[in-house]
Design a protein that fits this description.
The protein contains ten helices and 14 strands. It is of the alpha/beta class. The strands form four sheets. The protein has an eight-stranded parallel β-sheet. Helix 5 links the parallel strand 6 and strand 7.
Length: 463
């Protein structure tokens, strides 16, 4: 049998194959009696209804009707004309021919394979319309809530990047740089220090934050993780006189996941202070603390800074910290905290509280998710102004530079360039406090820096 594929994916027979064979003789249908008050004789017509009081002799040519009756249509001689149930209860009027019923064995007609589906009833359309309208309304509201503010913010940042920095807003010879762990674990040699000195001698870098941790989650610091620290400190003093070396200590905080350093534990904070004293004993000239993700308003962090400041003051050493970015919109850190365990922003008030407790504060002004170089530069300008507003003039403020290239949703390399960050920092400085002496830039990080990074840093900032 030929088949064709139906619209719902099932196979069904084609219409031209549905044929019914002609019966050889009428007696084959004698087994189908005609119900009614008076049973029909065996010689009755296969039509299943009496045509008159005197039936024909039962010949195959069809029944002979009584005198005065209308003849049956010729098709009654075909088996399809026999009703499956024999529902006639009496003789039909002679003046009306009996309609040809369908045989029970005849399959129901199927739609042609290429026929289009019938439209849904009007009532079904009406039922769908309110649902469709609600979805469209929700999409429109979502677009207004998300897209319109985003466009407004991006436009404002682009405008913030316009204009020219003020004259004299260049390096104050108070810049810093983050260095990797290889300088203190034995991988670097004397030749590497000489090369680093060549990079830095014509810049304003005067502080090096060399990664000496990480701290253990209980606040302790194994001496085995920085076996060459004393060698590096002496080498820098020899190659770069006047440059300070600070121990960069960091760890993940427990509020950012199931494990980490717990600031709320007083014993842990005491161990961090003890570890800071340990690196100062090694010869470091300061402690640079980087704990992430640090929630805005964390009072335990402020307590830790108070304890560390007492220690570093007694040792005539520097206390510096890596700081989160400041809310670009009021209370944005609170809104972000509803959807993220570790929001990236601090309130401007909390930033000021931290800045008053340290000697140096370096803003990690990268990984901003900005899509364009102009909006990233405008963002750095905004961050610089916000930080200057709450940083006391006795605290050294530094703005971080992205000395690395990545492309991901939090950091688009084509947008977050060193050139844009330098220009943005100069714009913020020009608009807020152009004469601030304790201000600088801090490249992050030495082992990922490119020649383009160094060139843009020197061309835009070093004069």
């Amino acid at each position: 049998m030929d088949h064709t594929e139906s619209r719902d994916g099932t196979d069904e027979p084609t219409d031209d194959t549905r044929t019914t064979p002609e019966p050889e003789s009428a007696p084959e249908l004698e087994s189908a009696p005609t119900p009614g008050p008076t049973p029909a004789p065996e010689s009755a017509s296969t039509s299943g209804s009496a045509s008159g009081p005197t039936p024909a002799s039962g010949s195959a040519s069809g029944p002979t009707l009584a005198s005065g009756s209308a003849p049956e249509p010729e098709s009654v001689s075909e088996p399809e004309s026999a009703p499956s149930s024999g529902s006639a209860s009496g003789p039909a009027p002679a003046s009306e021919p009996t309609p040809e019923p369908k045989s029970a064995s005849d399959p129901a007609p199927q739609p042609a394979p290429g026929r289009q589906p019938q439209p849904a009833p009007e009532s079904a359309k009406k039922r769908r319309r309110p649902w469709v309208r609600r979805v469209r309304r929700a999409v429109l509201v979502l677009a207004l809530v998300l897209i319109v503010p985003l466009v407004a913010v991006e436009t404002a940042l682009r405008v913030n990047y316009m204009g020219d920095p003020a004259d004299g807003t260049y390096t104050r010879d108070r810049d810093a740089m983050w260095l990797g762990h290889a300088w203190v674990d034995g991988r670097k040699k004397d030749a590497d220090v000489t090369a680093l000195a060549g990079r830095l001698e014509d810049t304003g870098v005067r502080d090096l934050y060399v990664h000496t941790g990480p701290l253990e989650h209980d606040g302790t610091l194994p001496r085995s993780v920085y076996p060459r620290a004393r060698w590096f400190i002496d080498a820098v003093h020899r190659e770069l006189p006047g440059v300070r070396v600070q121990a960069f200590l960091g760890d993940v905080l427990a509020n950012g996941g199931p494990e980490g350093l717990e600031l709320s534990d007083a014993a842990t904070r005491a161990e961090v202070v003890r570890s800071a004293g340990q690196v100062l004993d090694t010869g470091y000239e300061g402690v640079h603390l980087d704990l992430e993700p640090l929630h805005s308003g964390d009072g335990h962090y402020l307590d830790l800074l108070d304890d560390l400041r007492e220690l570093t003051k007694g040792r005539d050493a520097q206390l510096s910290v890596a700081a989160h970015q400041i809310d670009p919109l009021p209370h944005l850190h609170s809104v972000a905290g509803l959807v993220a365990d570790h929001p990236k922003w601090w309130s401007q008030e909390f930033f000021g509280q931290v800045a008053r407790r340290v000697d140096q504060i370096a803003v990690m002004s990268y990984d901003t998710a900005r899509l364009f170089e102009s909006t990233y530069g405008g963002y750095v300008a905004q961050q610089t102004s916000l930080a200057l507003e709450v940083t006391p003039p006795t605290t050294h403020l530094l703005m971080g530079l992205p000395f690395y290239y990545e492309s991901n949703p939090s950091h688009w390399g084509h947008a977050e360039t060193v050139g844009a960050a330098v220009r943005g920092a100069r714009l913020g400085l020009s608009r807020t406090d152009p004469d601030r002496e304790l201000f600088g830039l801090a490249p992050y990080i030495d082992f990922a820096a490119t020649e383009t990074n160094w060139r843009e840093f020197k061309d835009g900032w070093v004069r």
